[in-house]
Amino acid sequence: MDYRSTKAGVFAVALSFSVVPVAAVFAASPDPVKAEHGMVVTTQHLASEVGVEVLKNGGNAVDAAVAVGYALAVVYPTAGNIGGGGFMTIRLKDGKTTFLDFRERAPLGSTKTMYLDDKGNMVKGLSTDGYLAVGVPGSVLGFETARTKYGTKSREELMGPAIRFARDGFVLDQGDVASLQNGAKKLVKDKTAAEIFLKPDGKTYAIGETLVQPDLAATLASISEKGPDAFYKGATADAIVKASQAGRGVLAKADFEQYSVREFEPVKCNYRGYDIVSSPPPSSGGVIICEILNVLEGYPLGYLGYGSAETVHAMVEAMRHAYVDRNASLGDPDFVDNPVKKLLDKQYAKEIREKISPFKAGVSQELMPKGFGESTETTHYSIVDDEGNAVAVTYTLNGSFGAGVVAPGTGVLLNNEMDDFTAKPGVANLYGLIQGEANAIQPKKTPLSSMSPTIISKDGKPFMVIGSPGGARIITITLEAIINVIDHGMNIQEAIDAPRIHHQWLPDKVYMEPYALSADTRKILTEMGHDVEIDKSWTIWGQAAGILVGGESLADIEKGGGARYNGAMDSRSGSGEALGY
Ligand code: DON
């Protein structure tokens, strides 16, 4: 029997099996989904079903991650992709951990100033819309590398469901339609994208209608049959390069031919006895989550309480300091010497704590590094299998529907990941990040990311799988889910659903999700000197996907006898689902 979450999912189970999870007495969130053999949590329920089927058929968590990755490229086109890139953090049942980097690279024809006019000013839209915004995609080679190194199933088996969804279509639910409506303004500008994702009359599809993607089906089928060369050396690359040349882009065949996946040691740190394994550069995610956790370890957050002014003050100041380091010093490790060791050092965290006043907000401008100048959509999924292998994947087109362009005949939406670079020091990117030289554009370089697919273990056993979309906020979204479980005792669903706060050094503001802080807490924070702003733009607060092992919360785990796998899809998600078996 399958165990499901989501409003739609619980309803479906209630109808077919009369098994409705019993709501926790005090929780405002739905109960986590419980299962004994495997758990798949993704932002689209059909993709979760694909992952569970792979597990049931004897595939491991990596097999399921590959099948889910391809499925989301069809059923979650806003972020799922084969025209973008991402990261996969893996923890095998024997405790070995590794990290695959299949993020985009800057094309050979890119230059440091490619998004500036002749006066040195940013040209609006150039790094976000159209072919010049596109980085060389990595997802196809990423999934194939994962499958061949750590999976057990054939490519044909893992790609089958995605090909069927693209060829035969899938029925759109409310979340799918909302996401297409969200992207309509961008998609209408590209003839090929509009033909796929909008109806012939230019309107968006309605709930219950079927989205068919025959070109994408053909592209996927050729990858399934011939392998990644069909994408990187064959007709797909040719079509993308041709469309790019016609659309003022710089992509060349050599970019595709030279693309490679990198395997890195993940970043590791320990927080209150929990072993955190997360994304290393070219992501800032793992390093900055660890840096913030190291600082926060010096504060009794559980005692101070969730959402209290003291807790929020400590979090904001830790975030402020860590994002300076992110924005000033991190970049692609093939190009930049990243000070990872220093940023992960507990002594360095202590030095940061010594600079934090317990009574007064810090001032971001005073932390401006020397020589720094003046100045949505991604998707995450979490999987564990019966053997205890765990996989966390975050991948993306960057902005919702990426650059909004599809090369004719391919069906492949292309990313706008180039916007994650520092196009101009001191000028904010799509996520308001003000970054420095370490993340400047260079051919074949990967832009600095915030994506943070994270796996936590305790006493050598898997404990939590977690991650989220959300641009620069991915780091704080993931962090808050972790401390909500470890410090505040929430169950995994509550930890993910709880309202969030965010600070990223610049702008010097504490962003809060509506209702995250009470009026009197805000008053205290304001009196301390914090500039607190409610941010109602719902897409930017992410959609975390998490799994807790051994119980739904710390108390449940300690009591013993909790469910083995406890899955939670963010209640902010329109179409996602935690599904176990
Ligand atoms: O890699 C990064 O940090 C960004 N490209 C992620 C973008 C993202 O999360 C958009 N979703 N809301």
Automatic annotation (TrEMBL):
Keywords: Acyltransferase, Glutathione biosynthesis, Hydrolase, Signal, Transferase, Zymogen. GO terms for biological process: glutathione biosynthetic process; glutathione catabolic process. It comes from Phyllobacterium brassicacearum. The active site is at T378. Its EC number is 2.3.2.2, 3.4.19.13. InterPro entries: GGT_bact, GGT_CS, GGT_lsub, GGT_peptidase, GGT_ssub_C, Ntn_hydrolases_N. One of its GO terms (molecular function) is glutathione hydrolase activity. Belongs to the gamma-glutamyltransferase family. It catalyses: an S-substituted glutathione + H2O = an S-substituted L-cysteinylglycine + L-glutamate; glutathione + H2O = L-cysteinylglycine + L-glutamate; an N-terminal (5-L-glutamyl)-[peptide] + an alpha-amino acid = 5-L-glutamyl amino acid + an N-terminal L-alpha-aminoacyl-[peptide]. The gene is ggt. Cleaved by autocatalysis into a large and a small subunit. This enzyme consists of two polypeptide chains, which are synthesized in precursor form from a single polypeptide. Residues 1-27 form the signal peptide. The keyword Acetylation does not apply. This is Glutathione hydrolase proenzyme. L-glutamate binds at R103, T396, L397, N398, D420, S449, S450, G471. PANTHER family: GLUTATHIONE HYDROLASE, GLUTATHIONE HYDROLASE PROENZYME. Pathway: Sulfur metabolism; glutathione metabolism.
